[in-house]
């Protein structure tokens, strides 16, 4: 999402495809930019307010044709809600971008009301980036059908906003959109090798960001038996994607370790999933996508935080070579794992990735994974489940979620859950024999591979795949977390 600023705060003078004025609920058409717009449109806005067409409700957009009264051909009044907050501004941005696409408007000019500034403008741009997202790579059009149009640029007027302050929001929106596109891409167009190629391409375009891809031979040498065990059933080779950023101004001795699950297609393996909805399992790499794009975003924004990102990538497929229920795998740290359910594969590949990150310099860890259906049942698509081994680190992650809009809710890791992960034949079992505390079980399993570091786990099974589409959840949280560490 491209952005710029304008010194002209008069909505009648802004040149754009769509000029946007925002209003709280209830709207007041007698003051500020809304009054200026109403005067230019001969009282049309006040009439719409009186008729209840403009209510100021969050996400509500009303479009007016300018008929030559403005420098723009159309104006939009977008609602912020009764108590405008970050989500109200983001909702307004999303709604405006969607309406702009329908109107074939590529450039929108936002007029900030009195009291609003860079913070509100950034929230609006973040929402606009989400609303402008389209995934039509595989859609064909009739010869006489026009190409779809999406909002490409937001110009912000008023509020004393500086271009540099706004650029961060546009860069973030682009990274979120890229993570969404990765999750939405069909698995035959995004194998583990292709995902690794994408990460390499990102690193080539970002100064100071390095990428290394470990293949099957390197993983074998490292003893990554859990990841290799999951990968056995697929003809596609696995990859462990490692991205590093070492800024000169980074705080010495502090390395943010990011780990993201990237099962580019999850059939469930021998414990095969039901066919209904299985097509959505192309998105079982949403955590890996967030980590790849989040790590690149931190470097692109120039944040003085050293980052080590590790993304284990594989398919989980049934074949004569697949890992079987009852098999025992040995992870990179030597822990043995009884495979009770081959569809509990995400925690297996994360186990090796967490050990790798911990042993290669990370001083604190955060993993993101579309891990358990139990988390969808518990929290739906609004909050991710947040588990942590360190209270201070867990609170930092939670606060970054609140600040970024990637909400997460703390969940328990009580010692009373420890017996669930025990196996009669190995050190650990990858799935419980009793149907209870599924999301807690998975998090408790992962903790054994964190090498005692401060660690948080985000189960994004609901938030990472909203409504059967990739959401880009986690990219903004990662950026906010890194900004917090940089400010320490």
Features:
488 residues; alpha/beta; Leucine Aminopeptidase, subunit E, domain 1; Aminopeptidase; 2 domains; six-stranded mixed beta sheet; 19% strand; elongated
In CATH terms, the superfamily of the largest domain is Zn peptidases
CATH architecture of the largest domain: 3-Layer(aba) Sandwich
Q: SS-based structural class?
A: alpha/beta
Biggest sheet details? 9 strands, mixed
Distance between the termini: 29 Å
The general outline is: elongated
Number of domains: 2
Mean pLDDT over all positions? 96
Secondary structure blueprint with pairings:
Layout: E1 2-6, E2 18-23, H1 32-40, H2 44-50, E3 61-65, E4 74-79, H3 86-102, E5 107-111, H4 118-132, E6 153-157, H5 163-184, H6 192-204, E7 209-214, H7 216-222, H8 225-231, E8 239-245, E9 255-260, E10 262-266, H9 286-300, E11 306-316, E12 328-330, E13 336-338, H10 346-359, E14 364-369, H11 373-379, E15 384-388, H12 391-404, E16 408-410, E17 428-429, H13 438-447, E18 455-459, H14 475-487
Parallel strand pairs: 1-6, 2-4, 2-5, 5-6, 9-11, 9-14, 10-11, 13-17, 14-18, 15-16
Antiparallel strand pairs: 3-4, 7-8, 8-11, 12-13, 15-18
Helix pairs in contact: 3-4, 4-5, 5-9, 8-10, 9-14, 10-13, 12-14
Description:
The protein is α/β, with parallel strands linked by helices and 488 residues long. It folds into two domains: 2-158, 3-Layer(aba) Sandwich (Leucine Aminopeptidase, subunit E, domain 1), CATH 3.40.220; 172-487, Aminopeptidase (3-Layer(aba) Sandwich), CATH 3.40.630. Helices cover 35% and strands 19% of the residues. The protein is built from 14 helices and 18 strands. The protein has helices at 32-40, 44-50, 86-102, 118-132, 163-184, 192-204, 216-222, 225-231, 286-300, 346-359, 373-379, 391-404, 438-447, 475-487, and strands at residues 2-6, 18-23, 61-65, 74-79, 107-111, 153-157, 209-214, 239-245, 255-260, 262-266, 306-316, 328-330, 336-338, 364-369, 384-388, 408-410, 428-429, 455-459. The strands form three sheets. Strands 7, 8, 9, 10, 11, 14, 15, 16 and 18 form a nine-stranded mixed beta sheet that branches. Strands 1-6-5-2-4-3 form a six-stranded mixed beta sheet, sandwiched between helices. Strands 12-13-17 form a three-stranded mixed beta sheet. The longest helix has 22 residues, at 163-184. The model has no long low-confidence stretch (mean pLDDT 96).
């Amino acid at each position: 999402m491209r952005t710029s600023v304008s010194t002209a705060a008069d909505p009648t003078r802004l040149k754009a495809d769509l000029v946007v004025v925002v209003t709280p609920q209830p709207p007041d058409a007698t003051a500020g930019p809304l009054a200026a717009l109403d005067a230019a449109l001969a009282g049309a806005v006040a009439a719409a307010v009186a008729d209840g067409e403009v209510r100021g409700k969050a996400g509500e957009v009303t479009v007016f044709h300018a008929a030559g009264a403005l420098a723009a051909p159309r104006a939009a009044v977008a609602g912020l809600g009764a108590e405008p907050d970050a989500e109200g501004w983001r909702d307004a941005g999303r709604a405006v971008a969607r309406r702009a696409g329908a109107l074939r408007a590529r450039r929108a000019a936002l007029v900030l009301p009195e009291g609003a500034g860079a913070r509100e403008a950034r929230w609006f741009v973040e929402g606009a980036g989400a609303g402008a997202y389209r995934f039509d790579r595989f859609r064909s059009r009739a010869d006489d059908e026009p190409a779809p149009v999406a909002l490409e640029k937001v110009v912000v007027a008023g509020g004393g906003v500086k271009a540099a302050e706004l650029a961060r929001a546009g860069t973030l929106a682009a990274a979120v959109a890229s993570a969404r596109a990765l999750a939405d891409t069909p698995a035959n167009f995004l194998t583990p090798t292709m995902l690794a190629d994408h990460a390499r391409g990102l690193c080539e375009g970002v100064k100071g960001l390095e990428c290394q891809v470990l293949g099957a031979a390197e993983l074998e040498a490292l003893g990554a038996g859990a990841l290799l065990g999951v990968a056995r059933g697929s003809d596609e080779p696995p990859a462990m994607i490692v991205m590093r950023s070492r800024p000169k101004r980074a705080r010495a001795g502090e390395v943010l370790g990011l780990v993201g699950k990237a099962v580019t297609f999850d059939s469930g393996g021998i414990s095969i999933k039901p066919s209904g909805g299985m097509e959505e399992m192309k998105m079982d790499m949403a955590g890996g996508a967030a980590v790849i794009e989040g790590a690149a975003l931190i470097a692109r924004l120039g944040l003085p935080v050293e980052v080590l990102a590790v993304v284990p990538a594989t398919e989980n497929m049934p074949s004569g070579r697949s890992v079987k229920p009852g098999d025992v795998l040995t992870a990179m740290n030597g822990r043995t794992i009884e495979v009770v359910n081959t569809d509990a594969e995400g925690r297996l590949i994360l186990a090796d990735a967490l050990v790798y990150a911990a042993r290669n310099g990370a001083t604190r860890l955060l993993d993101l994974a579309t891990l358990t259906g139990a988390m969808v049942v518990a929290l739906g698509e609004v909050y991710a489940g947040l588990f942590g081994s360190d209270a201070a680190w867990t609170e930092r992650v939670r606060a970054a979620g609140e600040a970024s809009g990637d909400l997460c809710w703390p969940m328990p890791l009580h010692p009373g859950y420890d017996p669930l992960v025990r196996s009669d034949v190995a050190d650990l079992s990858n799935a419980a024999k009793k149907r209870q505390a599924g999301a807690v079980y998975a998090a408790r399993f992962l903790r054994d591979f964190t090498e005692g570091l401060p660690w948080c786990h985000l189960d994004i099974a609901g938030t990472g795949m909203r409504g059967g589409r990739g959401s880009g959840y986690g990219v903004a949280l990662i950026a906010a977390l890194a900004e917090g560490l940089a400010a320490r």
